[in-house]
């Protein structure tokens, strides 16, 4: 018998993957969670029916989400990931020796538990002594940082699910303004901002919100085959450094996708993407 997983990525678009085995399936306190062993992309994390990450193509997402801001900042010491319970973004942050503390703010402990159990290639960094895991709402945590109740950050990465349920507010201008207040001078915020093919209004709206919030805003791209449309956007807001002229060092660890050359090339946008952001 053939077993297939199908995600309805939009009302007009689906993706199907042949599944070898269901490793875990349950309801957490926040969402439906599944970990599947697929034939094409290895182990895959699925939340509420949506693909979050796979072992095979995750480097093109996590490495670009993380290393672009980390290599741009001159000395990222205290960093944070909002969401990202699979651990992939934290793993990449730890490839930068300057990091003294990395805070993972993941509301759903079930995601972290599943990643540690089934996705060790992503979650390996979560046991590092520099990592602090906080299970709370990212908006509330960043508000405490902005109010001075907790120390500020040099780099904040928003590795969120699609803008549904608890993640909706993570795509708002109000949240970007809160994060700006939670950053040190020269601080950088990067957020995944979906597909320029199938989420055009969201790409435009989030980039414009970032541009209104930060003195410097840029959009860049990567290719993630299992995400809707394949081409994926990241919005970067900076209080100082320009990612086109990185002030920091590249990651000190193996990468499958990111290179310093690709770092700069990722900001060369196709004409239709430039139009989306008013370029």
Task: Describe the fold and architecture.
By secondary structure, this protein is α/β, with parallel strands linked by helices. The protein folds into 2 domains: 3-54, Spermidine synthase, tetramerisation domain (Spermidine Synthase, Chain: A, domain 2), CATH 2.30.140.10; 59-276, Vaccinia Virus protein VP39 (Rossmann fold). 28% of the residues lie in helices and 32% in strands. It has 9 helices and 12 strands. Helix 6 links the parallel strand 9 and strand 10. The chain is globular and about 55 Å long.
Q: What would the keywords be for this entry?
A:
279 residues, alpha/beta, Spermidine Synthase, Chain: A, domain 2, Rossmann fold, 2 domains, 7-stranded mixed sheet, 5-stranded antiparallel sheet, 12 strands, 32% strand, globular
